[in-house]
Design a protein that fits this description.
This protein is of the alpha/beta class. 35% of the residues lie in helices and 24% in strands. The protein has helices at residues 13-24, 43-50, 66-78, 96-101, 125-134, 169-193, and strands at 2-8, 30-37, 55-57, 84-87, 106-110, 138-145, 155-162, 197-200, 203-206. It is globular. Bound molecules: 5-O-phosphono-beta-D-ribofuranosylamine (GRF). The site of 5-O-phosphono-beta-D-ribofuranosylamine (GRF) has 16 residues, from helix 1 and helix 6.
């Protein structure tokens, strides 16, 4: 059973997608042991509580220094001894100590096809604003392992989504969440939980035929 801690900052729709796939049996061998948010008002915490999952807020506002916050977040995650840490709409830069502690055991969902529209400053609606401003016809979402930089770790899964003429930023964000994020993040966790992820030359793959 894969023990997972999910880090969240906002509405928690990606968290909900994970919980729903566990309930439906599509995501197996997985237990969400805790949900931690940097934002005490995050509706994602409510979603966790409704699902009977321990939910807590560890916010930079609770500490005098960023270093103290980093130590508290690391301790807060380690307390649950996760096999995997999932960043589901988590908008805080991770402490280097956390990344080192969980090398190749942290997954992040990014709402674009990396390496497009990613890196510093590209998060949430800003990603979709840039997509519409550039006029690309395809966007999508990416699940990748987290390394020391922003959105640069090994890509595990991606799914493309059509950009439609006249899309508003919100309409595009919703389509990317519905058609891509909420599908590939649970699939990626399922692959880790069922031992079908392979690393080759610094690249991550799911064994053929396994990413159902
Ligand atoms: C999503 O677009 C996610 O990709 C981004 O934050 C948005 C909200 O995520 N990182 P959620 O509803 O909190 O899961």
């Amino acid at each position: 059973m894969l023990n997972v801690v999910v880090l969240v900052s906002g509405g928690g729709t990606n968290l909900q997608a994970i919980l729903d796939k566990i309930s439906s049996g599509e995501l197996t061998n997985t237990r969400i042991s805790a949900v931690i948010s940097n934002n005490e008002g995050a509706y994602a915490l409510t979603r966790a509580e409704c699902a009977g999952i321990p939910a807590e807020c560890i916010s930079p506002k609770q500490f005098e220094t960023r270093e103290q916050f980093h130590q508290a977040l690391l301790a807060g995650v380690k307390k649950y001894a996760p096999d995997l840490v999932v960043l589901a709409g988590f908008l805080v830069i991770l402490p280097p100590e956390l990344i080192a502690e969980y090398k190749n055991r942290i997954l992040n969902i990014h709402p674009s096809l990396i390496p497009s529209f990613c890196g510093t400053g590209y998060y949430g609606l800003k990603v979709h604003e840039a997509v519409l401003a550039r006029g690309v016809k395809l966007t999508g979402a990416t699940v990748h392992f987290v390394d020391e930089s922003t959105d640069t770790g090994p890509i595990l899964l991606q799914k493309a989504v059509e950009v439609k003429q006249g899309d508003t930023v919100k309409q595009l964000q919703q389509r990317v969440m519905e058609e891509a994020e909420w599908e590939i993040l649970p699939k990626a966790i399922h692959a880790v939980a069922n031992g079908t992820v392979r690393f080759e030359d610094g690249k991550a793959w799911i064994l053929e035929g396994e990413a159902q």
